[in-house]
């Protein structure tokens, strides 16, 4: 037993129950306001057509059928408003079983309050069934068809949370009193040395007093039915012996759900009544399915049938009630109600009095049906030993009455409340079931994702701190038992997570410790064998993320995408499926951002071989696993901003989903700003395989996007794709630090340095030729070394090129350092024999690819005047194409402008602070040749695949500000079509609403003025009536 001092120490880490209730109530209000604002803003700012295109609304539907469900619920099936038979298919949408939807009259905007709200029950290609839980009698077809369906934010969950807070405030001397004292730090957790056992086990079973030490064969005499390891068995014994509360801490792949199933079985063997909960329907169904598989039979699943897995519907409360003795009478009442509904909804009822009579009878029938069904529900619950529900679903009237009411021999609280995935449940949600029992057993992992909170203010204030996390902080190992053997990942994939989040305590089981993708594909290339692969964007401009917001239907959404990464993901997946022969069903693609999910899904749909690969967000993939998992991190920017990747629990979830191979596509240069994220890249370097994005895609493969920033990304030489031959011949050092392959000039053999110093030059495996880009940089550095001079590279170098410069300089024995700040940061290289010079104020605008040959008879001459020195520097910089782009250098106009600006700045800069490469000069002839070439290049169509001149006929695009020939002048022809379409839509909407009172409605005669709308409707009806009267009069005359 823990001392009182420990209890006092633990209590200092938590606020009182009253303070918790007050604080949580305020935070719930903030969270609900954020949810409502998100939904209503979307409905208000988007047109109905845009909402339907986004998949969150279905327009112009009508009720095709109306029936009665459990508790007299009205179930309506909606189909597209059409005279066709069979009815047309519904458009693509996001509505699924369990979603809350609003039903809107077509005469009112979707931003208004819905006429009815319900829950999606079943979704088919031509119809969608919705269950309406409203207690009031509703004639669905009283709404003028067609009507609209749209996702809606409900306050049902908020009401249940507030009810739990009220119950928590007033709870006194109930079965859960001891549990409350432990959870709020008043008393420490208690554990029995020998829990009670069934009489038969107590007589025949071994004493097993010291079962927590060493090997464990039974749980206090009760055999284990599920195959468990020692840590899992210790956790089961720990949970069974708990008096008030116990926690099972299960890192990824350690089998916490398996352990929880055995805990439930052990409780059932001891004749305990158990309430089993989880925050999601998927988690509850998983537990129920596992319990049924080990032979538990007296079970019942609470919840809406539309949210329960189809194979488990025989165990849901609705099915069991219909199979009870009272079901036949309830069935007769339901049939009579369905008959009345058909009369009302098909217009067979007579006048107003007849309809009023039918409504009155429906009300009485519904009341009688509920009474009989509640008695049947109480009967079913009384016979069930284990009840399954979500945490909020435990706020069921029949369940509360059964557990707390003193009627019929009550109350009958549960002996134990088990909550799986407790680290993903809001604490207030956990208290809904916990107040119905005496003891709690929580399983989860607070090192993985916490509950999703929409309000950032509520999250900052601690709404996402769970009860499981608080208990871990307060009582630690006193209340918790760690599962330390995982059965999912190779030890390489597991190791980083274990060291970073679990103090290195995780171990891989022998069955998975060394498994790789080679077990699935015996003849796989060596490049595809490594359990961990990092594909580095390397700071390439065309691999940048897009703008930080995305416009959808006139509304900005804070989500991101990265077309470059998406293309790399698709090519790597194609490489595995098409070339290596891996089954596509064994691959999953995950990413933190919804927009990237949408982009990846659209790209996969166009590739038949990849169309079956599941693509999801990291959050939705928690709890799942796959043989190969590819992660797109998305973030790639010059500011090293990582967004909500800084929530490292999300990263922990992402990297622990893979069994045999984890592939991460990300930009190491961006991740440098976050130590934890960069440690993952470093781990991949040391223990896995690092490849580069330019091995799979080049700039021409990536459509133009906003990610390019204010200036268009430089053109790059063509790179090889994912289908390149294996690099198995390359030594391990080269495989971990590959370089982007490039082609040498046609008909020209690659040049080699006169004296080979340092590591051998990397070679392209396909044709054996020297990498042109590295050779170019090497020649520059070798000339600096030969002349014992100094050279400043431009600030425009990519991260890959910077790294290459540093590595080559080190191998050649040169001094190298980075100077400047921010975007002006550049690399200065000099001979070790040369004294360091003051840091220049700026880097050269463009780098040369190789230095000019030094004079053969003496040192290079210096300029006789400052202006001449600046001109020489310009000549030196401009006579060779850009190292970073591999393409032509600056135009003549840009050179002249830069030269004038440098001369102007020269007067303001002291001589000893001016950057100079005085040792690198070229002749006037080379400058003239370069200026002419640059001028010619400036009049060539900007489309990479076109070489037409634009000097005589051409135009400059108003979106990307580049010049194109007449054939590619239109925006759609060179990649600006999306931007042109977006601006055209905005312009049209602005023109149409300039004088409108509707504030966004295209029809300025209505706007949001209800009075004008009603007057317009009256005028229209009057015109229709007048026309009908004239038509009748003409008919009589004829």
Automatic annotation (TrEMBL):
Entry GO CC: chromosome; cytoplasm; nucleus
Domain of life of the native organism: Eukaryota
Pro residues compositional bias, start-end: 845-854
Composition skew (Low complexity), residue ranges: 745-758, 855-870
Record region (Disordered): 190-209, 704-774, 811-924, 987-1038
Database matches in InterPro entries: AAA+_ATPase, AN1-like_Znf, Coronavir_polyprotein_1ab, DNA2/NAM7-like_C, DNA2/NAM7_AAA_11, Helicase_ATP-bd, P-loop_NTPase, R3H_dom
Coiled coil feature spans: 348-375
Catalytic reaction(s) noted: ATP + H2O = ADP + phosphate + H(+)
Listed Acidic residues bias regions: 763-772
Pfam family, one: zf-AN1
Keyword presence, Zinc: yes
GO molecular function: 5'-3' DNA helicase activity; ATP binding; DNA binding; hydrolase activity; RNA binding; zinc ion binding
PROSITE patterns listed in its UniProt record: R3H
NCBIfam families on file: IGHMBP2 family helicase
Protein name from the UniProt record: DNA helicase
Lineage of the species this protein comes from: Eukaryota, Sar, Alveolata, Colpodellida, Vitrellaceae
